[in-house]
Amino acid sequence: MAGTSQQALRVVHLYRAVIRDLQPYTTNRWMWFAEKEKIRARFEANRNMTDPMQIETTLRAGEAEFQKWRHPDPYTTPYLFGGSRYMRNPPMPADGSISMAFDFGREAGTWDPRDTPATGHHH
Q1: Which of 8, 79, 102, 116 has the fewest CB atoms inside 10 Å of its own CB, making it the most exposed?
Q2: Any idea where the domains of the chain sit in the sequence?
Q3: What pLDDT was estimated at residue 59?
């Protein structure tokens, strides 16, 4: 592809987006590999284009096709934004604005491992 560097970058982004979006459509890894090869062949067929206008037309058609076939509920990695585990256990605020009652439910005079010195000796 002898187009502009912006077009080359858009092609790479489109290829990666299509491959990523393919995952929810396939039921197993072997199916994913087979479909990935078909998509790669479609991209490779247009690799030797030199006219920037033709590249732009083909790229826009590819982006439109991707939007048309995009999965309605794509897979989201659980710990990333939108995932089921995103911010499930957020860290405690460092400013101490939330106080914790560490002795909740303890009766007075009962032993707690936090009360022992950090020397490792237990008497």
Answers
A1: 102
A2: 5-69
A3: 94
> What is the per-residue pLDDT for 3?
67
Cα of 25 vs its chain's centroid, Å: 17
CA angle 88, 93, 94 (to 5 degrees): 140
Buried b (16+ CB within 10 A) or exposed e, 5-40: eebeebbeebbeebeeebeeeeeeeeeeeebeeeee
pLDDT tens for each residue of 105-121: 666 666 666 666 655 55
The pTM for the full model equals 0.60
The span from the CA of 95 to the CA of 92, in Å, is: 9
